[in-house]
Amino acid sequence: MTDRPIIDIRHAAKSYGTLEVLKDISLQVKKGQIVAIIGPSGSGKSTLLRAINDLDPLTSGEVWLEDAQVNKKLPTRQYEAHINSVRQNIGMVFQHFNLFPHLNVRDNITLAPKMLKGISKAEADQLAVEQLNKVGLLDRIDYYPSQLSGGQKQRVAIARALAMKPKVMLFDEATSALDPELVEEVNLVMKQLAEEHMTMIIVTHEMGFAQDVCDRVLFMDQGVVVEEGPPEVIFKTPANERTKNFLRKHLKGQN
Amino acid sequence: MIRVFPFFLEAAWVTIQLAVLSGAMGLACGALGAAARLSRSPALRFAGAAYVSVIRGTPALIQVFILYFGGPQVGIQLDAFEAGVLALGFNIGAYMTETMRGAIISVDRGQTEAARTLGLSRFETFRSVTLPQALRLMIRPLGVNINALIKGTALVAAISVVELTYTAQRYIGSTYKPFEMFLLAGVLYMAIIYVTGLGVNWLDRRAALR
Amino acid sequence: MGLDFTVVPPFAGALLTGALWTIAITVSGAVLSFFGGIVFAVIALYAPLVVRLPFRLFAWLFMGTPLLLQLFLIYFGLIQIGVDLPAFVAGVIGLGLHFAVYNSDIIQAGIRAVDIGQYEGARTLGLSRLQTLRKVVVPQAIRSVVPPIGNNMIALLKDSALVSVIGVAELTLSSQMAISRTFRPFEFYVAAAACYYVINLGLEAGLRRIERRIQIAR
Ligand SMILES: Nc1ncnc2c1ncn2[C@@H]1O[C@H](COP(=O)(O)OP(=O)(O)O)[C@@H](O)[C@H]1O
Ligand SMILES: [Mg+2]
């Protein structure tokens, strides 16, 4: 087997009407790699991330997950079956958690595995216990989302995504909606995943975290990847003027 | 269809009369009921609450029957149309009581307090500060009550008032075109409701301009 | 002639039977209106245009016309075209469909109010549209729509009196049968009203309990 990427984005472009949100972006992510995407708000980070599981379909370009094209053109019914099976391999974590408020923590985690993988209730419960152990919330297994803090909600959301045993995890500003004192507990879980060599693409505003955890950093602005490279280079010696400007603003507050 | 149309039109006119008269009576009952429910007298408050609870807790059809068939036993002799108007008006009045009360209590308390600190009396405050604001708030929900009332007038068909539903029933059962007869009556009901809706919209817009 | 409520007790059994039929028709109609409301809401929101348009027409007709007229259509009208439904069935269908249309409006609003993030959360896990709807969206919508649907069920109970007109021997018709024997309309209609009032209290108490339960289970 060659060293082919898990995620391969080829010439991705997207517009809303006349507004070009993504302009010819290509990106390859290899197994075990951790990629950070930074950039000003409105630059297209979320759109790019959500194109990976076709939540926001591209206008043109291709997205591949290993040997399968994610955004394959298919008749509606076939596409549905195709995309659902693809998405089972791509975990996603949202800024606003999107936990299911009518289900307790256990059922939030086991809903999809039970429905999609046909596992028994006992196996599903075992899975929930495993994943909750990982994010340190086993004692909250019977709680409802409304009874959890923001940090706890996000850890449950991560556990829910992990329970599908995804090949890659996408994080869209996972800590942006959290009170500052709750950010660290979520970061810790993500760091732990990094140590386990989970493949991850992380959209974040936290430069410190990106620097610590990621192998590669992409700086996006106005729908293009302006600059990319290892964190040492991007954060210490960026080449592009726009990157420098952005980092000046965003590193000021930190360290 | 052409042949029965005049009968339907005549019946629709009866339905309109029923709705207008019982609607007016409902507004009066609603105003009195709301006043009673918001009054300082416990007896009046109880009477208002009992009115709402009993009327809303029992079928309108039974209320019509009590008045029309039971009335003579207690010395009330009414023809079917009169009994229909009174029973429907008294019935919708209970719902309007709650609508009006809701609108009045949803006017901000700060408004009352501001008026009272200016030295206005309780009554003055109500008349010149609370009520004008409440009136605007109650137009749409009262419109919903009226809409229900228009459809509710159908049940006086059960005491043989020759209104739209009674007429439609006669032809549904005797022509071999039940669906057409239903549609004909339906279109007339919806026309009445539509025009009423225009009126409510107009009132609401006018009130909002102030 | 004065009022004499002692005429009522001898007919207590008949009234009770009528009351039980009222409860039966209310429960059946409520169940039909609830599930019918869900189906109608899903049709109105997701069905292809060829299904949606006729449905819109049907909903528009049912919301714009009196229930009694609809009962006449279903009972007397269907006989004309050779469909002879038992009165009870016609009554349940009429009440059920009528309130299903109203419930559908409420449920549509409830479904629209479910946050888009809930769809995305479910879809990114790989759940299909239908699975997302069934397991994530509808259960949440149901919660927000229980109070207004409860109000419709209370309205349905009271409107169940109308099926007496097509000959269902429920509470209203039972009291009429007693009246035809005693010529005492006032006493028996008041007695029937009292029965409705009590059933109504029971229904309201039940609905309040359901609402409380649902609020806890969040
Ligand atoms: N559904 C949409 N319709 C129109 N414009 C959109 C839509 N979603 C996003 N956009 C626009 O696309 C651009 C990129 O958005 P986004 O990817 O969310 O940026 P970021 O995540 O970097 O803040 C923004 O200008 C945004 O206004
Ligand atoms: Mg974003």
Structural description of this entry:
The complex is a heterotrimer of chains A (255), B (210) and C (218). Chain A has 255 residues and is an alpha/beta fold. Chain A has nine helices and ten strands. In chain A, a hairpin with a 2-residue loop joins strand 9 (216-221) and strand 10. The model of chain A has no long low-confidence stretch (mean pLDDT 93). The longest helix of chain B is centred in the N-terminal third of the chain and has 34 residues, at 5-38. Chain B has a domain at 18-162: MetI-like fold. Chain B is an all-alpha fold and 210 residues long. Helix content of chain B is 81%, strand content 0%. Chain C has one domain (5-217): Orthogonal Bundle (MetI-like fold). Chain C contains eight helices and no strands. In chain C, 81% of the residues lie in helices and 0% in strands. Chain C starts with 11 loop residues before the first helix and ends with a helix. The chains are: A alpha/beta (255), B mainly alpha (210), C mainly alpha (218). Adenosine-5'-diphosphate (ADP) binds at residues 16, 19, 21, 39, 41-47 of chain A.
DSSP strand content of chain A? 15-25%
CATH superfamily of chain C: MetI-like
**Which shape of chain C, going by the Cα principal axes?**
globular
Structural class by helix and strand composition of chain A: alpha/beta
* CATH level-3 fold name of chain C: MetI-like fold
Short description:
Chain A has helices spanning 45-52, 76-87, 105-117, 121-134, 150-162, 180-195, 207-213, 231-236, 241-252, and strands at 7-16, 19-29, 34-38, 60-65, 68-69, 90-93, 168-172, 199-203, 216-221, 224-229. By secondary structure, chain A is of the alpha/beta class. The radius of gyration of chain A is 18 Å and the shape is globular.
Kindly list the characteristics that best describe this protein.
heterotrimer, A: 255 residues, 6-stranded mixed beta sheet, 4-stranded antiparallel beta sheet, 10 strands, B: mainly alpha, MetI-like fold, 0% strand, binds adenosine-5'-diphosphate, binds magnesium ion
